[in-house]
Amino acid sequence: MTSVVNQQAQVFRLKLLGSSTILRDGRVLTGGMVRPRRIAVLAMLARGGPGGVSRDRLLATLWPGIDEERARHSLNQIVYAIRRDIGDDDVITGARDLRLNAELLAVDVIEFQSALAQRDLQRAAQLYEGRFLDAFHLPGSDTFERWVERERASLDLAYTNLLEQLAREATGRKDHAGAVESWRARAAHDPLDARVAIALMQALDAAGDRVAAIQHARIYELLIEAELSIPPDRDVVRYANELRGKHVAAAAEPSGDPSAEPEVAVAQVHAPAPDLTPIGKVDEPATPPPSRGNPRPASWPTFRRHALLGAAAIVGVVALGILAGRRWRGGTERSAPIIAVGRLTDHRTSDADAIAGAVTDLLATNLARANGVRVLSTARMYDLLRRVGDGRDSSSSAFASAAQQAGAEELIDGALYDRDGRLRLDLRRIDLATGAVRAAYSIEARGLFALADSGASRILADLGVRLPLGSVADVTTRSAAAYRMYEEGLKAHFHGDVATARRMFEAAVAEDSLFALAEYYAAMEADDPIEVRRRLERARRLTGRTTDRERLTIMAGWAHALSLPTLRAIAETLAVRYPTEVSGHLYLGIARVMEGNHLEAIGPLDRVVAMDSAGLRHAVAGCGACDALRWIISAYELADSLPAAERVARQWIRLQPDSRAAAHALIEVLDVEGRAAEADSVNRASGRPMVGRTVTRRAENLIRAGDFDAADRLLADLVEATTAREQLDAYWTLAISLRQQGRLTDALDVARRLRPLLAGAVPMDDGAAPTISVLEAQILLELGRPRMAAALFDSIARGREAFESAPVAARRSAWNLAHSAGARAAAGDTVAVARLIDSVQALGAVSGFGRDRQLHHYVRGLLLVARHDDSGAVAEFQQAIVSRNFGYTRTNYELARAFMRLNRPADAVAALQPALRGSVESSNLYVTRTELHELLAQAWDSANVADSAAAHYRVVGTAWKRADPPLQARRARAEARASALGR
Question: Distances from the Cα of 337 to the Cαs of 206, 261, 360, 580, in angstroms?
Answer without folding.
Answer: 21, 9, 19, 11
